[in-house]
Amino acid sequence: MFAWNFVLNQSGPTEFVFRMFTAIPKFQVLLFLLFLLLYLMILCGNTAIIWVVCTHTSLRTPMYFFLSNLSFLEICYTSVVVPLMLSNILGSQTPIPLAGCGAQMFFFVTLGSTDCFLLAVMAYDRYVAICHPLHYTLIMTQKLCIQMVVGSLALALSLSLQLTALIFTLPFCGHLREINHFLCDVPPVLRLACADTRVHQAVLYVVGILVLTVPFLLICVSYVFITLTILRMNSAEGRHRAFSTCSSHLTVVLLQYGCCSLVYLRPRSSTSEDEDRQIALVYTFVTPLLNPLIYTLRNKDVKGALRNAIINKAASDTH
């Protein structure tokens, strides 16, 4: 309630609008169809991961529990942004109320931060599985797995609520302001404030370090120990299998952390609004789309479960 009180008590503009991608009708239709197709693929791909993990007992392990939670996060994450974005591509610049902008920022930052924390949790899971295989089931209990997911969400909620509340204490000049973005992200909204934002920029950097740098360093430390353990393995097949499961996770990590760091941790003097918008397209569409593809194409267990599910479904439909 603290954040929303600030949003509703603003004496400046009551609405924002998003800058259009293009004013050319043909390009608007093409962009709409492209982003709609990507969004539907994200929904289908991540829903398939959740469905397979929930319906196949062989995949009821901590690794796939975290993967299904990651897929659920990706669905929520894109759904906070894409439907409103699609409505603005075809139509005119539909205004978003100040409270709606605050709500979108809050959920976007919360879900994105939880995503980053969960990737660090998944790295810890891989560390325990490879470096301490005999104690894996004792350490990675169902209770601990649930606690780590809930803890990631709780920490993200806390940081996001405070950051959103702080941003919307700022005065915004004029009745209607244009955001040079397709969502109410923190940097473009900060640019519209008609006040000194140095404290707010500093807080954003601190939150960025907590959400991006600290988990990334923990992931790096985990993978140093993982790599050393894998190199000591006698079996070539064991080394290949271990590297295969880890490479999928590392690919997702580099995409997610790399793009987010470019937007949130670069000095403001070296950033361009158009660049931020282009990079945001990557972690809004490309990363959530690649997650299920990377994990299914590089994971024999998931591929096998999906194949069996499709065969069983087809067999049941023919009878």
TrEMBL record:
What residues does the G-protein coupled receptors family 1 profile domain cover?
A: 45-295
Coiled-coil-forming residues are none
- The main location class comes to membrane
Q: List GO molecular-function terms, semicolon-separated.
A: G protein-coupled receptor activity; olfactory receptor activity
Transmembrane feature ranges: 29-52, 64-86, 106-124, 144-168, 202-231, 243-265, 277-297
> Quick one: a GO cellular component term?
plasma membrane
Cross-referenced Pfam families? 7tm_4
What are the protein's UniProt keywords? Cell membrane, G-protein coupled receptor, Membrane, Olfaction, Receptor, Sensory transduction, Transducer, Transmembrane, Transmembrane helix
- Kindly list the places in or outside the cell where this protein is found, as annotated in its UniProt entry: Cell membrane
Stored InterPro entries? GPCR_Rhodpsn, GPCR_Rhodpsn_7TM, Olfact_rcpt
Q: How does it sit in the membrane?
A: Multi-pass membrane protein
Family classification = Belongs to the G-protein coupled receptor 1 family.
The protein's name: Olfactory receptor
Question: Which species is this UniProt entry from?
Answer: Chrysochloris asiatica (Cape golden mole)
- Its gene is LOC102820875
